[in-house]
Amino acid sequence: MEFSQYDVNALMQITNRPSIVFTEGRGMWLTDNKGKRYLDYLQGWAVNCLGHSPQCIVDAINAQAGKLLNPSPAFYNEPSIVLASLLTKHSAFDRVFFANSGAEANEGAIKLARKWGKVNKNAAGENRYEIITFNHGFHGRTLATMSASGKAGWDTMFAPQVPGFLKAELNDIASVEQLVTDKTVAVMLEPVQGESGVIPATREFMQALRALTKQRNLLLIVDEVQAGMGRTGELFAYQLSSIEPDIMTLGKGIGGGVPLAALLAREEVSVFEPGEQGGTYNGNPVMTAVGIAVLNELLKPGFLQSVKDKGAYMRAELLKLCEKHGLEGERGEGLLRALKLGKDIGPKIVETARDMEPVGLLLNSPRPDLLRFMPSLNVSKEEIDQMISMLSDILTKIGH
């Protein structure tokens, strides 16, 4: 079917899309409306942690859809209970609220922190509500999560912002300390800043942040929407630093491609009262059945070690590419990695890679001088080699 036959104008224009329509996907590969195949290193922006249409997710959807779609979140359903139990068993948290997107989970974390600050007031008996977040951070596209984010220009896009978010600098503990006031209730960060170019928080910074928040009776919130669910080689990114936060949010990978997210908290932080948090689809049995299938795959013996091994392999191959083409280097954790180009050629690489024939390559350039790689966690070494070879050809073609 030709692109001109699709009525794309019926969709609201919220981003610039190329003139292709994807019709099928399997593993690391997508196929478009003309039958062209693409090696996909976006995977829905780290969403498809097991690749496109993995059999375990197909089976989970088919089985659950034939039993129960939605009894309403006013009642318990079995898959949500099972998934919540699995998550708490394998993390530092005691309670789970399921949502539909990372932004919604982060919105819930902000609400929970402010409610906790209302219960645990300051010395003057006043509510605490300020949350320290970080420049260049990204927490979503709701009004509150945009206000919590540190992306340039977002402070005016839908002004006025939601007040109460002060911005520190990642990996600079002094910048956090100087923002703490008697109104501060929490510190919120991504253990790896994804949208800003895959910038990991150091182990030392995370440990200092945990010590500071405990000393000042503040909550520590980790936004693991992108870095969680095995992406770094640990089940959760906070585990890289051997700390235990108070609140964690998950999204993207937890659903393996379907709309699922989670807000997790320690028991003493879980202070919501009935009516304060909810949502029509929270804990949906079809979505949480998929979450169970995804988590069971990640917990299989050797799976997370394979993510570490392939992350190390990709890092080594990207460094060889840097040496060959005079690039600046790479960084990241596990299978969330970035290539530092040294020049603003990222968008050109993305376009050239997509348009390659007979096979295309899908890449992401969150900054003009950088590429970000978010393959499925079960990507093969052969598929890493193929991407490196294609990217090397592109760099040569554009004269780099």
Strand content: 15-25%
Order of helices and strands: EEEHHHEHEHHEHEEEHEEEHHEEHEEEH
Main structural class: alpha/beta
CA distance, first residue to last residue: 36 Å
Write down the overall geometry.
globular
Which spans of ≥5 residues are poorly predicted at pLDDT below 50?
none
Say what oligomer this is: single chain
Task: Count up the helices.
Answer: 12
Number-wise, the strands total 17
How much is the radius of gyration in Å? Answer: 21 Å
- Order of strands across the main sheet: 4-12-11-10-7-5-6
How would you characterize this protein structure?
By secondary structure, the chain is α/β, with parallel strands linked by helices. The chain is built from 12 helices and 17 strands. The strands form 4 sheets. It has a 7-stranded mixed beta sheet, with helices on both faces. Helix 10 (303-325) packs parallel to helix 12. The longest helix has 23 residues, at 303-325. The two termini are 36 Å apart.
A few lines on this structure:
By secondary structure, the chain is of the alpha/beta class. It has helices at 43-46, 55-65, 78-89, 102-119, 143-148, 154-157, 173-177, 203-215, 285-298, 303-325, 346-354, 381-397; strands at 22-26, 29-32, 37-40, 95-99, 130-134, 165-168, 184-189, 192-193, 199-200, 219-224, 247-250, 261-265, 329-333, 336-340, 359-362, 364-367, 370-373. Strand 8 and strand 9 form a beta hairpin.
